[in-house]
Design a protein that fits this description.
Distance between the termini: 41 Å
Largest sheet: none
Helix content: 40-55%
Radius of gyration: 26 Å
Number of helices: 24
Structural class: mainly alpha
Shape: globular
Length: 574
């Protein structure tokens, strides 16, 4: 516990210090003391750097940095220093969160265009290029209109009458598979009906978001009776059949580094789909930044966390039209995975996704908000092949190896202990030990620590059962008045849980108790990634009965909700 707290405390303090300096800078700006505001913002930018390096705070830190750069650019304009404003705005545009924060994104573009259009080194053409980019993305501002009028240019990016952005997003969500749909999207981009490939609607979604969610929809064969004519042999409604559309959008300029709700990246969505072809499409995009392999969302999940939270043995259903040419569920009998991870199974298996991410530089040592590592998540899922891959020593993957066994989550539990409690029947416990021994590692220290933890859990369960049993006897024997004292009965329950040792330990492990123990797939702290949706969502409309766990829902399990930017400075400041 102390070790984990010692790791998290400095970065949390760093983020808090940055936000405090930012608030001081906003107050100074509102008071008209621009030089002092610039100093406060500079201190905040320096303070936020450590928080940018830790997965648990990196997303919040990047959002804070975006606001700081936008504010500092405004201060530079107030101090008649347009060149500094240009630099700050350029740095802001380089952040992956920029386009997902609509209000701040607009401010950055307004200030960049203004800086380029003022001063002795003014560049009206460059300023107009920024205005055009903003208008194609659907942004309006008085400053944009003034610069366009000065240049004698008409407004760009106006949607044709009868068209709305949600229509394009629905198209990409429901009709992403098949050559006909790919050709349709090409035509929309070529004609200008869709002014910008990354243009977002009022909920912050775009066509790339639609395709990424379509990847998680099960492939379904479309009967000819359901169409007006012959069936397109490549036309499936989702799954891996959507990868060509994904490649088309990325090739047309869609940003592979952009963020969506809660900081999710395209690589996270692709990893959650379980298709290595989708992951490869993102990794090989022309503008993909290698550092984004380590990008974490608001809960500290990276793409590797997402991939390892899915059962490695689970196969994605393919239609007879799949390019792989056969049914993978029966390739090795009853959906069992190929122990070697090779052949066609690897092309659609989560093991191939994990390998692709590791080869791209993903760090398996990173821990999410509650201390879970990719190894812990793989152990919870009973993913034996993935566990072996993570523990295998490889010079090209410096983070892999038996050293991962020593990492523990926030509750002090290792991968071995969690697997023993949550995925005992999967055989992953034996694989954890044997893989570590084959890799030349020693598990003696970890085993002794796990034994102490398991003894403590058993003692805790025994005490809880006796405690709650006593409360029930008191109530049954007329002692209800004692139980219903100022401390409510619910609070008197030990840990607020029924006397069930396994449920208690599952909760400690980060496992969601509401997920059936008989389920064929073990889930991470919440079913947020992986899993296949059987119907398409409508943007802006949550699916009935969809869980909304604290750690965020799964990729494509429900459309993101629009949220007000939490890092936007007040309108009266900047």
């Amino acid at each position: 516990f102390a070790t984990r707290a010692a790791t998290l405390t400095p970065v949390a303090q760093s983020l808090a210090a940055a936000q405090s300096s930012k608030a001081r800078g906003n107050a100074l700006f509102q008071a008209g003391d621009y030089p002092a505001a610039a100093v406060a913002y500079a201190q905040a930018i320096a303070a936020v750097d450590p928080a940018l390096q830790a997965p648990t705070t990196s997303y919040a830190a990047e959002c804070t940095l975006l606001a700081l750069l936008a504010n500092t650019a405004q201060v530079a304009l107030k101090l008649d220093n347009p060149q500094s404003a240009i630099k700050f705005c350029t740095d802001a545009l380089g952040l992956s969160v920029c386009a997902s924060k609509e209000a701040l994104f607009r401010k950055v573009l307004v200030r960049l265009a203004t800086a380029l259009d003022t001063g002795t080194d003014a560049d009206p053409d460059a300023a107009m290029a920024i205005v055009t980019e903003a208008q194609l993305r659907g942004m309006d501002a008085d400053e944009f209109a003034a610069i366009a009028q000065k240049a004698g240019k008409d407004k760009q990016g106006v949607l044709r009458e009868g068209l709305e952005m949600r229509m394009f997003i629905m198209l990409s969500l429901r009709l992403s598979a098949g050559t006909e749909n790919v050709d349709r999207m090409k035509g929309l981009l070529r004609s200008g009906d869709l002014p910008h490939v990354d243009r977002r609607d009022e909920e912050g979604n775009n066509v790339l978001w639609g395709v990424l969610n379509a990847l998680t929809i099960a492939d379904v064969e479309v009967p000819e009776s359901a169409t007006d004519g012959p069936v397109d042999p490549d036309d499936n409604r989702g799954g891996e059949s959507c990868v060509p559309m994904l490649a088309l959008l990325l090739g047309a300029g869609a940003d592979p580094n952009q963020r969506f709700e809660d900081g999710r990246t395209p690589l996270m969505y692709a990893a959650g789909s379980g298709y290595v072809t989708a992951v490869t499409a993102v990794l090989t995009a022309n503008t993909f930044q290698k550092k984004q392999v380590h990008a974490a969302d608001s809960k500290g999940w990276t793409a590797l966390h997402v991939a390892c939270s899915t059962n490695a043995g689970e196969k994605r259903p393919l239609t007879k039209n799949s390019k792989h040419g056969h049914d993978h569920d029966h390739a090795h009998g009853h959906g069992e995975s190929d122990p070697t991870g090779g052949g066609d199974d690897e092309a659609v298996g989560i093991l191939a996704v994990v390998r692709a991410l590791l080869d791209a530089g993903a760090d398996p040592r990173l821990q999410n908000e509650i201390g879970q590592t990719p190894l812990i998540l793989a152990a919870m899922s009973g993913a034996c092949e993935v566990v072996a891959e993570l523990l295998r020593v490889n010079a090209a993957r410096p983070g892999c190896g038996p050293g991962l066994l020593s990492q523990r989550n926030t509750h002090g539990m290792s991968a071995i202990m969690i697997a023993h409690q949550v995925a005992r029947k999967s055989g992953v416990v034996t694989d954890l030990l044997s893989a570590a021994e084959k890799a030349g590692g020693s598990t003696e220290i970890e085993a002794r620590e796990d034994l102490r933890m398991m003894k403590w859990v058993e003692v805790r369960g025994t005490i809880r059962e006796a405690h709650n049993g006593l409360l029930r006897r008191l109530t049954a024997e007329g002692g209800e008045a004692l139980v219903n004292s100022p401390a409510a009965a619910a609070e008197a329950e030990f840990g607020g849980e029924p006397p069930d040792t396994r449920t208690g330990i599952a909760t400690m492990a980060g496992h969601t108790p509401s997920v059936s123990a008989a389920s064929s797939r073990r889930r991470p702290p919440a079913p947020r990634w992986g899993g296949r949706r059987r119907s398409c969502p409508t943007p802006g409309t949550p699916r009935a009965g969809s869980p909304r766990p604290e750690t965020a829902p799964g990729t494509g399990r429900r459309p993101p909700r629009r949220r007000n930017p939490s890092t936007s400075p007040s309108a009266t400041s900047t």
